[in-house]
Structure formats: C-alpha cells, structure tokens
Design goal:
nine-stranded parallel beta sheet
C-alpha cells in the first residue's frame, strides 16, 4: 500500500524544517552518544516508516527492543522525545507560515479570528440596544489549572522558545550562505543544550512550584497580549455601536485554580492560598514598576518647550520630587510620584517588594487600582493636549491597558472543595455553636432551614476559644486566607467559590456559610440584604448531577436569602460543568449529550428565575475530558448558553501549546473571544423547529452509548485489572508532573480514579478509549440498516454544530489511536482470557465506530475535515512508534522485578515523549 502525504506541496516547507532540526538532532546524538546509539535510533526511525508503509510487520520493530538494556534504551527514548518536541515547534511555525500566505493572498479572514467575527457582525446589522444588553457583564476567562500533564520543564520551554526565534529569523530574513551557516550553528547550540538538559524532574512538583509554572505564562505572553486585545476589541465594538455602553470592563480577564483548588489535594493550605494570591500580585507590581521606570526615561518633555496644564502640574508637585535635575520636567516628576505611591502600595500588600521601588515614605499608598489608573489617565490627557498622542499610545497606553485588566491582583484565584468536606466542616461548626448537635442526621429540608437562618444573621458560629478537628481548622484557615486576599487586593483576587460534586441546595448553602464565617459574605440587615464579592458556584460533574443540575439551581434560587445574594451580584449566577467525571461515568457520547441537555435546562431555569447565567466549562486537554478545538466547541453550545460570558479551564500540555509565546497566545485568545461573541450575538445552532426531534434522537443515542460503555467499563469482570495491567496507570503516579494524588481515595474503583490518569493511561497505550467507546454501537443499533435513519444522522451532521463537533472531535482522537500498538500493551495482561475478552470488545467497538463515522459523514478518512491534523499525524506518528514499543518493553521489565531507578526513569521518559508528541494526552 502506498501512503501519500496529504497536501504535499503545502507541507514541503514544514518537511524542510523537520529535516533541518532532525538532522541537527541526529548529529548531536552521534557526537555525544556514539555511533552505536545513533545507528539504533536511525534503524528504529527507518523501520517505523516501513511499518507505516506496510513493508514490514510491527513485530519486527518491536523485536529491535526485546530485552534492551536500560543504558541503551534511555538515549533512544530521549532522541525520539526531543524529535517530537522539535516537530511541535516546526508545526507551530508552519501554521504561522500558512496564515501569512492567506493574508498575502488577500483571502477573507479565517474563522475563529476577531477580524472574521467583525465581518459577520457587520453583515448581521444588529441594533445597539440588543448588543448592549447581550454583552452586559461580558467576560471571557481562560482559567489555568494545576492539572498538568504538562510535563515540560521551564528550562526546556525557554530553549524551545530560543529555537523558535532562530527558525523564524532564518526564514524571514534574507541571509547569505555564511549567515545561514551562522544561524544553523546557533540552532545547533540550542539543540545541544536541550539534549544535555534533563527532561523530567527528580522530585514531584510542589504546589509552590505549580504556582510559579502558571505565573510564567504572564511574562511569556499574557501580560503583553491580553491588554492589547481588550483595547482593540473595545474600540472595534464601540466604533460599530457608538451609542451603546459596551465593555465597561475588559472582556478578557484570566483566572487560576493553582493554589485554590483543594478538591482531593491535601497540600492546599491557608499558607498556599496566601502565597498564590501574593505571588500573582507581585508579578503585576513588578511589571508596573518596570514600565514606570521606562516612562521616566521616555517622558523627558521640558516645561520650557511645552505648555503644562494645571492638572499635570499638580500631579508633578504631589510627587514631592525635589531633584533639581527634573525641576522643569513635569511628566518625569509625575511618573516618579506614581512610582513612589505604587512602591508604598507594594510594601503594604506584598510579602516580597519587587525591584524598581522608591523609598518615598511621604507618599500615600494607592487604595485601589482605579486611583493609579486615574493618575495615568491624567498623563494621557496631558500628552494629547501637547500633541504628544503618538507617545501616549506607546508604553503609557500599554501600562494603562494592563492595569485596567489585571488590577493589583493579576488574576482571579478560584477556591474549590468537595461538598462532602463542606458538610463535615459545617456540621462541626454547628455542633460547637450549639445550633445542632448532629447536622448529618437532618433531612435536606431541615438542613436548608438551619443554613438559611445562619445566612440571615451576622452572629458567627466561631468563637475565639473554639477548638476544631484538624480538617475543619485547615478549611477555616483556607477560607480566612481567601478573605485576607479579598481585603488586600480586592474582590477580583478570589472571585468564585466552587463546590465539587454539588447535588443539593444544602451543598450550596454550606459553602455560603463558610464564606460568611470568614467575613467574605455579609448577611446585611433588613435594609441592605446579603452581599459577597465571592460567588458561590455549583459544579455538576456526573451524568446524574448534570441531569438534576437545573432542578438544584432552581431550588436554591427559591431560598429567599440566596436569591437576595444573587440579586446583590447583579442577578449573575455562575454554574460550572464538569467534563471529566461525566465522561468517565458514562462514556463520550452520553457525557457530551448530558452536558448539552444540562445547558438547555440551566438556560431555561435562569430565564424563569430572571437571572443571568454564566457557564464555566471544566474542559481538559483531551477530547475524553472535553477538549478539542475551542472555537467549534463554543459555537456548538445551545442557544442562550453563551450570553456574552464564558469561563473555561486550560489544562495540561495544552497550556504551553496555546500560551507559550505571544503569537500563539493571541491566536488562541482571539478564538475564545470570537466564538463567545458570535455565540452571543448571532444564531449559530441552526436547528430551528427541528430542535426537539433532534434532542429526542440524541436522548436515545446517548442512552445506547452509555449502555455499551457501561457494559465494558462497569460490568465486565476484571476490567479494572485489565486497565491497570495494559496501561501505565500505576507508573503515572510516579511521573513528577503535579502535586495532586492520582486518586481521590485509596481505591481500585474507576469512579475514584482521577480523570487525568484515566485518560492519560489510555492515551499512552494508544487506545484513546474515553474519546469514542460506545458511539459505534449506539449508531449501528439505532440505524439498524435503515438508509433513512442513516440519512437522518447525515443531515444532523451537516446542519447541527453540536453533532458535527462531537463527531469531528471523536474522529480526531480515533486518528491518534492505534489498535496494533494497543494489542502490544494488552500482552502485559497476564490473564489470557481477560486479555482476549476485553481487547476483543475494544477492537470490535473501534471498528464499528470508525465505520459508522465514515457512513454518517460521507468521508473517506477520519481526518478529511482536518487537513492540518492529517499532516501532523502523517509527519510525526512514525516517530511515536519506537516510544510505544520501548514503553511496553520497560513496563514488562519493571513488572518482572527489575525495579532499578533507571528503568522507572526510562518509563517516565517514554510518557513524557508521548505526551509531548500527542499534545493533548491528559
């Protein structure tokens, strides 16, 4: 069989880049590991391509590594892992190249760009009142989480960034042969440094480290990109609807879970919450102070040469700057005063005072970011009055934009805890205060009555001599630390309190009581009513909870004190939807449909209650955890589910893939904004009067898919053993990629296993089961050979964004699966009958699913609608093959008793390499 590269002419520059980088890497391997290792790497590479061309059996390649000594295996693993990283780099550059080609050709803006969105808005001719109403309280918030299957170390990221810059320079600059050689030598030095840098950490990441990992993306891209996009977006929308009061706050505002998410993570403490919020603020202050130093250097205008208005003169005089050298430089004196006040603010707020502060004790700290913004706005007006607008539009504009977006807190830290823990803590508080001795024994109605009463009084449950269990004391310290952050940096520092596994009204009210005890929620009085800068956010995760989510929200809003609290927050209520647990619970199709149905129900519940709903999507990097192209996913939401607002988690290696450098960050952030605006202002669902029949059909299909999935995962005897033996799930616990334990509880149950190791294990073994299993059976059983039913599914695929996106994402993940390699992993299962039973079920379902996908879509291949991914799979997947074979071999050695540290490290290196190559493995 001849395998042809899809889009060969378009990909030739990419292939040239890969050949260049691969050739340099090969030279480094030969020079530093010797001819024998180089020859083994080269032989494995050649044989992998022969496997793809069906010239040899896969077993021949596997035998190349039979019984391989770990000292020979590790450099081979590292070589293919490094190649995957360099291939990622080349692909990112090639995407930039293709976009530039489209722009130069004068083609219309590509979908998912803001330019394309503006064109669609212009064509829709929307009235100003409608736009103003729909974009009221608009917010798009990518939330960085501490779930990193992001295994890349900072040093590796920095080297990769330097190589990227050199490759761009090499392509975009006219160089002679000598200059090309010099540039290639620089690239070689960076690849050599990469080769001699350890890919994995010797110790597990602490939460303190994860906080720093999350914050590094602000220096890498976010601090520059986000404020600029916010400014451009506001200007673009206001120019179209000048009479509308649009985007009074920046629309794009990032968030974080790192240091605030303690669901199943025992290492989150009050001290960690303090560190997370304080370090975030320190990053913001550091940038502001550096920009102010830059402004002092730049704004050298002399009062002898320009007219100085009274406001500027007053601000300059307020600086108390008596330097004779700056006596006639009012802008410099004013900026120095602003820096002095910000320095005083930093000393009052921060644990560590950044560089570039001034010692000006006579200057008062700023009370809020708006005070500093007022001073900067004054500078802006004064510059424009003196015909210096071009200067005002540079560094000063950047600083003003950043301060408006990030404030003093930088990003909002969400708090999250499991409802079971809340129940236990509140029960202990109520018992200590003699409100009720046995809260756990109460019915739901009795609990709600007690909790409502507590929320209506300022009388605390906690006294100065109270003594509590270790768990309760720890939880109280965490919430008190959040309260301290709110008092110090403002409400934006901790905007939300999320309740995992929320199933009832009491689950929501318990969290509110904890906020009240910390002084965050004020019950108010008869005239003012309750208020809280921190919102209470239910998280509906399992399929059952998703199905009951709207009822839970409606019941909670029927409680007067809670409804009054929502009123005080502008009638805004956020709800989080969990993609990971619902998928693990019921499989891919059932979970996706449960989420869609939940959104429909929540939209209706919000409409009936007269509130504004904001949905927070807890999506992972993989399709099995809700991942996939963000633009398509957002447009696939039901009508009314995106009302100008969207929050979405960013997880795993996807974070680096999206935000590691400014160009990537801008493109991905534009995607989130474009999809949110289009979903809010335009009709994108497209079902019209056919919606209800389509929904009924998906109810049927989802039930069939869930039954097929459950028959394997929950009902097949020995399935958990098969999973543990045929995947590296046990070894994933040793990969030092995060502070969080792999399971919520010490158990062998699939239900208690965290979604990341569940999905990552199936990804490593190339089964990708969470992203497709059960779908083929559902389609095949429902169609039953009826051509009209098949035509119905084809019609929905073409007309309905949700259905099309579900199938497209599924196809993408199946294209990354490889049952030939999965069969090798199944050989690790000692029980031959169990191995045959489970793998036969997987193989049969896989074949059904591929077949039904092709019949429904009319495509010839899984990636016909995604040529970019098709090219990526074609170019890189032969390089994954040796990593999978080596992983299987080393797992067998480890499980046979060779528990040397090098063997374990070799396995972890294969995980790292595969996660890098697959780009969305967990």
């Amino acid at each position: 069989m001849t395998v042809v590269d899809p889009g060969l002419p378009a990909t030739e520059p990419l292939r040239e880049d890969i050949r260049l980088l691969g050739g340099i890497l090969g030279s480094v391997v030969r020079d530093h590991e010797g001819e024998e290792i180089f020859d083994l790497v080269e032989q494995a590479r050649v044989e992998s391509f022969r496997v793809r061309r069906s010239e040899i059996d896969r077993g021949e390649l596997a035998r190349l590594f039979d019984g391989i000594d770990i000292t020979r295996a590790i450099p081979v693993i590292r070589a293919f892992s490094h190649f995957s990283l360099l291939a990622n780099l080349a692909e990112d550059i090639h995407r930039e190249r293709r976009r530039a080609v489209h722009v130069r050709a004068g083609e219309p803006p590509q979908d998912s760009s803001l330019a394309s969105t503006y064109s669609k808005l212009d064509a829709a001719r929307l009235d100003a009142a409608t736009v103003e109403d729909l974009l009221r309280d608009a917010l798009v918030s990518p939330v960085i989480t501490a779930h990193p299957t992001e295994t890349r170390r900072r040093t590796v990221s920095e080297i990769q960034s330097r190589i990227t810059d050199l490759m761009r320079f090499r392509e975009r600059t006219e160089l002679d042969d000598t200059e090309i050689a010099e540039t290639d030598a620089k690239i070689e030095r960076q690849i050599l440094a990469l080769w001699q840098t350890a890919l994995i950490r010797l110790s597990r990441l602490r939460i303190q480290d994860e906080i720093e990992v999350g914050l590094r993306y602000y220096d890498m891209s976010l601090f520059d990109v986000i404020p600029r996009i916010n400014t451009e977006l506001r200007a673009a929308l206001r120019s179209r609807w000048p009479d509308a009061d649009l985007l009074t706050q920046p629309m794009l505002r990032p968030g974080s879970w790192i240091g605030g998410d303690r669901d199943g993570n025992p290492f989150v403490t009050g001290e960690i919450v303090h560190r997370a919020t304080n370090r975030a603020a320190q990053v913001a202050f550091t940038r502001y102070l550096a920009d102010l130093v830059g402004l002092e250097h730049e704004l050298s205008m002399s009062a002898r040469l320009i007219d100085v208005d009274a406001d500027l003169q007053a601000l300059a005089d307020a600086s108390k700057d008596e330097s004779a050298f700056r006596a006639d430089e009012p802008f410099r004196r004013a900026v120095r005063g602003i820096r002095g006040r910000l320095s005083a603010t930093a000393r009052r707020m921060l644990d560590v005072v950044p560089d570039n502060t001034l010692d000006s004790p006579e200057l008062e700290p700023y009370g809020a970011p708006q005070e500093m913004l007022d001073d900067l706005d004054l500078l802006d007006r004064s510059l424009r009055r003196t015909a210096n607008g071009v200067i005002a539009d540079d560094r000063l504009a950047t600083l003003r934009q950043a301060l408006e977006t990030f404030g003093f807190h930088l990003s909002g830290l969400d708090m999250r805890q499991n409802s079971e823990i809340h129940e236990q803590v509140v029960a202990e508080l109520l018992a200590w205060a003699d409100v009720h001795a046995d809260y756990a024994s109460l019915s739901e109605d009795e609990r709600v009555a007690i909790l409502s009463a507590e929320l209506e009084t300022r009388r605390p449950l906690i006294g100065p001599r109270a003594e509590f269990s270790e768990q309760t004391a720890k939880e109280l310290a965490i919430v008190e630390s959040a309260a301290d952050a709110v008092r110090t940096f403002g409400g934006g520092a901790v905007p939300n309190y999320i309740i995992s596994m929320c199933t009832s009204v009491s689950d929501m009210l318990e969290a509110a009581v904890l906020l009240k005890e910390a002084g965050i929620l004020d019950p108010g009085d008869a005239e003012t009513g309750p208020s809280s800068p921190v919102g209470v956010v239910p998280l509906f995760e399992t399929i059952d909870d998703l199905q009951q989510g709207a009822a839970t929200l409606t019941a909670t809003l029927s409680i007067p004190v809670y409804r009054a609290l929502v009123t005080s927050r502008g009638d805004n209520q956020e709800v989080m939807l969990g993609y990971s647990d619902s998928n693990k619970d019921g499989g891919y199709l059932a979970a996706n449909w449960a989420l869609y149905r939940a959104e429909l129900d929540l939209v209706e519940a919000a409409r009936a209650a007269g509130i504004r709903l904001r949905l927070f999507h807890g999506r992972g990097g993989t399709v099995g955890r809700g991942g996939g192209p963000s633009y398509d996913a957002i447009l696939a939401q039901p009508t009314g589910a995106v009302t100008g607002s969207l929050r979405i988690t960013e997880q795993g290696e996807v974070i680096a893939a999206k935000y590691a450098e400014p160009r990537l960050a801008r493109r991905n952030l534009e995607t989130l904004l474009a999809a949110t605006i289009e979903s809010t202002l335009l009709d994108v669902e497209g079902l019209g009067d056919d919606a209800e029949p389509a929904y009924a059909l998906l109810d049927d299909l989802a039930a069939r898919a869930q039954a097929a999935y459950g028959a394997l995962v929950h009902e097949t005897p020995g399935f958990v053993e098969y999973f543990r033996m045929s995947t590296p799930v046990a070894e994933i616990g040793e990969l030092n990629i995060g502070s969080r334990p792999a399971s919520r509880k010490p158990t062998n149950s699939v239900y208690d296993l965290r979604a990341i190791p569940w999905v990552m294990s199936w990804s490593q073994s190339r089964v990708m089961l969470p992203g497709w299993y059960g779908v083929g059976t559902a389609f095949e059983d429902w169609v039953g050979g009826d051509a009209d039913k098949l035509a119905t599914l084809t019609h929905l695929y073409r007309r309905w964004p949700f259905f099309r996106t579900v199938l497209s994402n599924m196809a993408q993940v199946m294209a990354k699966s490889d049952l030939g390699l999965a069969a090798r992993y199944s050989e690790l299962v000692p029980d031959e009958q169990l191995r045959k039973t489970v793998f036969d079920m997987i193989s049969t379902e896989h074949a059904k699913t591929v077949s039904m996908y092709l019949k429904i879509t009319g495509h010839d291949g899984l990636l016909d609608d995604n040529p970019a991914l098709a090219r990526s799979v074609f170019n890189r997947f032969p390089y994954l093959e040796p990593l999978n074979h080596l992983q299987v071999e080393l797992l067998a050695q480890l499980r046979a008793g060779d528990d040397r540290e090098q063997v374990k490290r070799g396995i972890l290196l294969t995980m790292n390499g595969l996660a890098t190559a697959l780009r969305n493995s967990g």
